[in-house]
Specification:
With 38 residues, this protein is mostly helical. The protein contains 1 helix and no strands. The chain is rod-shaped and about 50 Å long. It starts with a helix and ends with a helix. Keywords: Membrane, Transmembrane, Transmembrane helix.
């Protein structure tokens, strides 16, 4: 039971980190475009 709960928690954490990484990448890309003046 504990292992299953731990797995689902890890899955949720990895999903959140994935979404956070995508958002961070788009923010960084937007900043680079602003700095580069493209």
């Amino acid at each position: 039971m504990y292992k299953k709960t731990k797995d689902s928690v890890l899955g949720i954490i990895s999903e959140v980190l994935y979404v956070f990484a995508l958002i961070a990448l788009s923010i960084i890309a937007a900043l680079l475009v602003d700095i580069g003046g493209f």
